[in-house]
Structures are given as structure tokens and as C-alpha cells.
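[job 0412] stage=fold_complex status=start
inputs:
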Amino acid sequence: MNRLQPFLFVGYRSRALGTTLGATILVILTWASFATLRWDAPMMSAQPQALFAAGPFRANEAFEQPFDATVNYLSYVETKIQYRARKSDLRLLFRLRHGDSLEREGILAVPTDNSEITTVHWHFDPIPESQGRRYSIQIVVGPQVTGEVFAMADLQDPLPGSLISNGISTDERIDLVIDPGRNANWWRIFSTVGRSTPIGIPGVLSLLALAAVTTAGGFTILFVGIRLVPAILIAAISGLVVLLTVSLALRIFMNQPSAELTSQFWIVIVASVLGTAGTPWIVAAISAVTGTLDSVRSASVANWLLAIAIILSASGLTTSILTAGERIHVAIPALADGQPNAGRFDLLNPGISGWLIRVACLIWAIYLVLIYLRRKAVTESDIGP
Amino acid sequence: MIRGMPMPNPLMFVGASFGHRGVMTTVFLTAVVLRYTTFIRGDYSAWWDGGTPFPGYADLWIGNAIHLAFEGTPRGLWFSYEGLLYTIAIAPFLKAFGLYGGLVTWSHVLILSSAVIAPIAMATVRALGGHLAGSTLIGILVAFDPVLTWYGLNGWSDSATMFAAALAFLLFIRAARKPSRLRLICFGATLAILALDHATWTWPAFAWAIACIPLIHKAPLWLPAHIHSSHLNQTERSIRRTILPLVVLIVGLGLANIGLLAIGSTEPGNVFPVLTSDSGNQRRLAMYYDPNLEWDAWQPADTGRTIATRFPQVAGRQISTLVGRQIGPAIPLATWLLVANGIALIVIATRSRKKISVSMIGLSGLLIATIVVWQIDLASDPIAVGLILVLGLAWAYSPTSRTILFISMPILGIILLWTGTITGLRHSSIGAYVLYLVSGILVGEAGIILGRVAQPRRLMWGRMLAGHTMAALTIVSIVFGGIQLFDAFQSRLNLDRYTQWLDTVLPTNAVIMAGGNIDPWYVASHLNRDVIYDVENGARLVLDGANTAWGRRLSQIYPDALTNEELMQSIQADGREAFWYTPDISKLIPSFSPRFVSQATYPKYELLPTRTSSQNEEWAVVVVKPSS
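[job 0412] stage=fold_complex status=done
writing structure:
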């Protein structure tokens, strides 16, 4: 009898048990996906270039640069400087102002003792409502500093205003090299995405709930004959599937500056949610038309996993054709461009295809592990106790 | 025409008559035509490697073969030079046909040896009993592969390595199917050639020979069921017999080792020259994984230590770099190939879902692939994750592909380790070849499955469509190659006419300077003037009628001139005028830097068209002048 227990478990004799197992895996995956979800991207896609050095700035002197925040949860500012001194004693005081109010302030020790260009990161508590505001970053050289600081600047006027040197504005084209950005965890991402919609966070939550209900409806139609699966379990699985899809879709944009301001972001998010909600309905409709609904309803979890893995693999590999990827020059002499025709189109973000393939790989692995366990259990039960 | 019979469709006729041999012949001819085209155009030849990554590196083997052929001295036969057997192979051609005739003949041998890899690859897949679609696919992929063409023709010893590697895969499969003594000995001998020709293959060849003992012994476990049933004689698969390739490999390397010791081609104290490896490369590898390690502080154990401790952390990055920056960009339509593999795998997975039995080995491969896929950075290109998915599934679902991947692991592992340091396209091309083999196997297996599905349902149109597609693909390939060849012949004809015209307008004191992509002997004999060949890469051949010795440099003619300026002035001081050889001034570069001798900076010289031809506006007399 003991030998038969694993057989019953992994052989899906109990559909409720199999579904519970699937739901548990989904919970783990969704939790892991949200827990590790981060957006650590700069705000601007075209950062100022360090073309020349402005200065020198000595102890207690300051330079300043205004900039417009395009995202919420502004969390850091990065700048480039040169420090010429005999010892490593550079301390910089950072002040971030919005109008007349001082939003953030901090002192940073910069461990540099050579005159090479150094990138300085100043992290501060995220500002939730930063989007659409004009900020000014002021950098004051610490009072004990013995050397000279040079601020790296750009001449292409990429930022509003100009570099302010000790309170005096420089030429309009001259801007300090700064690269503001945000570090956002899943909740801040969700919050900033919700705020950038006309319906706000409650509206987004409602839409996700609606998507989960729609998905659950599709699942219920597909599994209507399976009384062993409680409705609450179907609803929970539907919600988890929608959340997992959303988290994976958000992950695609982890390195994209101001992702929520691009149309591609919304296309991917909306398509993911609608696709998830609509897929069970589409499968049910096709099955009903082709007369295979009963077969689909009685399909095992393994076959469902196989179907999902196949769809994701096919989608991932096909979408890789729709991304140009990074242009790599391999320099093959006889070819006109130095490399053969890749036959690819620059339509999608490379991350979309990559994430589809990653998830497909995961589903294939789960599917084959289940098959392996089931086969092993069957073999052991055949041998007998 | 019989009354009432429908008119036969010509394409149907072609499709029906195109058996495996027909397709193989067509693909081979396509490969020959495509390679011959690059030779005629001057892109690659036995004396010109295309100008990158180390222009004129082929001189090493040519020089060594000349010593062997004309002086009878084996001083160039060092294992560490690589191409030990390649050098020996060139020498008879030089001896028989002279320097120029020998190199031209050797270029043709290279064209054939590179082109024959296509039918060898097809035969390898065919030997596994797959559908014609699989072998056609791999044949076309190899025929059109630009790196196999490049290093197959450019005079580097890698052509021999590529040929031997392809042959080794074929002989391994043939030995696995029917392990006769002859097949096993041939396989072992090919491994010995591989190991002797390129240092990267020394240990992978040993690993392969050792792995083939259980693999051939247990071949019925991994060969497709429909081909091994007639060869189940286990006495032929005894361990005693399957050890033969290893014995042949050891004997082959042993004989070569004795030979090298006998001629003194080894460093003092080194009694195993055939196992010599470059310690400089090992240092580079250790320093690549451990940047804190210094060149002089390196100890041999550091390499193993850094690989064991640092490589696992960066394995994803290394795979991404190898696939995304070397293998992927060099394969035409690489992502489309992955899609084809994906479709084939979906067919295999769907068909086998009812009686699928996954082994722990098969499962572990996919699990490792899943971990690697999540380690790879997606920012640049998804091709690496796509490839890992395909290989992981191929490992899990296709025992034959798994075997090919398993025996390729040592060489691919070495290539992967050195990625980012010294791995170049000539090394990574073996990765592309293994991918082609796996693709051919998967498509072949999928083709067999679809054929079985079609037969009982009388879906004969599907089978005919497949046949026609194969025929159409191969015909399109050879037509494409034919057009390329015609175009190359046209440009060659233009070159002949240009040379004739140039001969009539050049002064008698003219010295011809030329780039690397020409035939310097042809130019010298038709213009009857002195030629300085490949002036931007050392002017490594000067043909002045009296002396045609290989490697006679301009700096040897004017030994007192120490700089490039002085060498150019020496030519002028001799009362000679320098002209540039180019049949098309629309492609003329405005200036060039002569690099006859090595200097910190190189002077610029302008190329000025002075007189154009009334026959062809692309022809001009181009004078070489110092930049003002």
C-alpha cells in the first residue's frame, strides 16, 4: 500500500490533488517572481556624455544642475567627476531641491586618489511623487577637502537649464553629466505603473481581478465536468496565473529607462493580461467547434504543461526573429557586411523573446520531472512490494 | 504521351527522381561552386587568408612546406605550430608543380576538401536513418556556411581540422552502426589526425576515443530503433573491439611523437612533443578568470583552480558570449534555424507524449539547460537562450542528438573556456557544425514521424510536398551558386582585360603595388613588371622576375632602408615609379599605409587615378604618391 501512495500522487488519479500541486507550484513561482522583481534602470535613455571637465571646485564650492523627473520613485543620481589631490579625502554634499523645498540631502565619501574620471552614485530614499517635477541637484565640495574637483559636462544641452557654477549659470548648452534613476521593488513598480494610468491603483487592481475572473470562467468551462476541483481552487489558480503573467511581463522591462512611458510597455502588459484571460476561452471555443472538448477536459496536468511549454517555446523562438538583437560585427572577409544575413527584424525588445524562452524552459523541466516521477512510480508499482 | 494520362509536372519529376544521392550530389556541387567563386574573386586562396584576423598567417605553413619540398628539411614540422600534417600535405604539391603551380593546385584541393564537408555531414545524418529533409538541411547549411568556407580555403591549417572533425563524426556513427575492425581503425586514425593537427583537439580526441568504448558497446540504446535492429550482434560490440579507436589514436600519436623526436622538432627535455600545450594561453586563461593574478606569478595549478572556482560563476556569460558574439552572427538565418529545430522538437515531443520515458541523464540535461537559461543576460540577444532551450530539449528527447552533444562536450568545453580570450571563429565553427548535426538529426527524426502520420491517412500530397521542397531547395541552391560563379567569372574576365590594358599604358620602369586579394604571379607574368604583393601586411612577397622565392620581402631587397619611408624612397631612387593595381577605381581607397617593416606609426600614401581608359570607365592608371 505504501508503494501505491506516490503512484496515486504523481499519477494524477486525484485531479484535486494534482490541481493543488499545480497551485502550490504556481504560488512558489509567483512569489519568487515578485520577490526578485526589480527595476533598477536610469530615467533617461540618452544620458549626457562626459565631454569636458568644468571647474576646478575647491572646498565649500558647489555646482548644480536642474533636471526633469519623468518617473516616480526617483531613487538615485549618478554623476561623473575628476578629483585631483594628493590624498583620498573627497567628501561631497548632495542636495536635491524641488523649487524652494529641500527634498533630500546626503554626504558621500568618494574613495578616489587619482585623477581619472570617477562615477559617483548618490542613493536616497525614493520620492514617490517625483514624476513631472523639476528638480535641481546641487553638489557641494566638503569643507575638509584638500584637492580640486572637476565636474564632467556635456555640450549638447541634453538637460533643461544649464550647469550652475558657484551660483552662476554657465552657457545654456553646457550641462552637468548626471544620470538620475530609480530602484524599485515589486510594490513600487506596481504603484508607479498604477499611478501612470488614468484609473489609478484601484482601477488597475479591479482590472486584474476582472482578468482573473475571466480566466477562471474559461477554466471552469474547460473543466466543468471535473467536479473534483473546487471552484475556489480554480479561482485561486486563475488569480495566480494572471499575477505570474504580469510579473513576468514587468520583468521584461527591468533595464529599460522609464519603461511605463513607452507604448511598447503597455502593448506587452495589456497583451499579456488579455492573452492570459482569453486563452482558456479560445481553447474551449476551438475544442467545442472541433468536437474535442471532452478530450481537452480529460487531459492530464502533464498534457496541459506540455501544451503550455510548446506554445511558449514556439512563441519565444518565433519572436526571436522579430528582434534584431545587438549588432555584432564578426568581420567575415568575403561578405559585403562582414557577416551573413541574419534574416531578423527590429520590431521587439530582445527581452520579450528571452523571457518567453526562459519560462518555456521552466515548464518543460516541470513537465519532464513529472513524467520522470510518474514513470518511476509506475515502474516501482509494477515491481511490487 | 499516352492518351488520357495527365501531363507530368516537371517539378514532380525532379522531386521523385531526387533521391538522397541526387540531393547529396547537388549540394556538393553547390558547395564547390560557392567556394570556387570566392577563389576566383580573390577573396581567399592558399596564399591569401582574407586579411583578418592575422593577415599573412598562412605564410607559416607555406614556408614550412617549402622547406620540406624544396630543401628536404623538416625544420617547420613542430607540433606547437599547429598544422603538422597540413604542412606535410602541401609539400608534395609544391614539389610536383613548383611554387605557383603547387599553391594554385593546393587551393583547388582546399576547395574540394571544404566542399566535401557538406556531403560528409549529409552522410552522417543519413547514417542515422533520418528523413531526407534532415540531411538536406545540414547539407545546405554547411554549403553556405561562411566560416567553413573562409577557413576551408584561406590557407590556414584549420581547413584540415574542420575536414577531419566532420569525417570523425561520420566514421563514429558508421562504427556505431556496424563496428567492424576497419571502421573502428578508420575512426581512430581520423582522431589521431585531429589530435595531431590542432592542439585544441589533443585531449578532446582522447576523450572521444574513451567515450566511444561504452557508446559503441551500447549503441543500440541510443541509435534510432529502425537502424540498429539488423546489427545487434553483441560480439562485434565487445569492449575488446570498441577499444580499437583508442589504441589506434595512441599508436598514431606515439609514431608521430617518435618521428618528431627523431628529427629534433621538440624543446630540450620535452619527450612528448605531441602533448605540448601553450603555457602562454594557460596563463591568459587563468588571468582572464582571475584578474588579480599576475603574468609572472602564474603557476600551472592556477589555471585549474581558476576554472574550478571562477568559471561556474560566469558560465552563463561565457555561453552568451560564445553563442551571441561568435556562433550566432556567423550562421546565416541563425534564429530561423532555431525555429526549425523548435518545430522539429515539438513534433517529436507531441508524438512521444503517450509513451515518453525520460531517463535521469536526459532529464538532468534539461534541468542544467533551465538553470543556464536563467543565468544568461537577456539584454543583448535572445539567441543564446533559444539555443540552450533547443539543445536542452534535444538532449532530453533525442538519444542520438544527446550522444553527438556528449562526444562534443570536451571540444566545446575548451572553446567555451577560452571564449573572451583566444577563441575565434575558426575555433567556434565546430560549435556551429555540432548545431548543424543536431538540427539535421532532429529534422530527420521529425520528418520520419510526419511521414508515418501521413502514410496511413493517405496524406500522400504531404510527402510529395516534402519531396518537392527538398528538390526546390537544392535546385535554388545550385542556381544561386551558379549565378555567383558566373558573376565571378565576369569579374575575372574584366581583370584579364584590365591587366592587358594596363600593360599597354604603364611605363617600363613601373613597380606594381597590390593588396592581398590578387594572384601576384599572374600580375607579374602578364604585366612583365615587378610586383610588391600585400603591401599593407608586410609586403611579404616581391616578384621581380629573377627571384620568386616565397617570403622575399621588400626589406630584404633594400637592407639599408630601415623605415617604410626609406623603403619607398629606395624604390624611387632606383628610378622606379610605383603604381597601384586595381581593376575598379570605384572601389579605390584614397590612401594606404605601406607596412613593409614594423613601425610605431605608418606613413600615408595617396592613390591618385591619373589616366582612365576609354574602354572601361572603371579602369585607371593609379599612381602612388606621398600624402602632402
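[job 0412] summary: Chain A is about 45% helix and 20% strand.
[job 0412] exit 0
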